[in-house]
Write a structure and sequence with these properties.
It is a single chain. The chain is an alpha+beta fold. The chain folds into two domains: 75 residues; 59 residues, no CATH class. The protein contains three helices and six strands; from the N terminus they run ααββββαββ.
Amino acid sequence: MDKIEIITAIKKQVEDTVRMHERNLEEIRASIANESKRTAGDKHETALAMLQAEQERTGRHLQQAREQLSGVNHLLLQQGVAADGKGCLVHTDKGLFFLGVAAGRILVNQKHIFAVSVAAPVAKKLLVTPVGASFTLNNQAYKIIFRE
């Protein structure tokens, strides 16, 4: 399996997430503008405060997604596997794991791949366990078949 295909699929998923958060933020801003036109009162102030809190949460999610996209773009430029394990594809008896960014489960060429951050506990185990050996995490046993 080609790593560029995997990274490209991750990038598409993260870009979709960024666009979704941007749309949500615009909708919230429009709602805040609409709410601001209404008359004052406790109900109005509560609704406005809730919208502003939602705007802050969505803004944080958008920032995280943009940082994740930056990490994916870095992976596309990177040649091979970095010293910290980013870019490593690990084949296990439980499936394929791509180490670099936490994008969850993605589908590439009809195969499910788990994209995880190198800081994730499973990634740490995948990196230190020798090929052919097994490890247990959360009462689940994994056997390393090979790394690329």
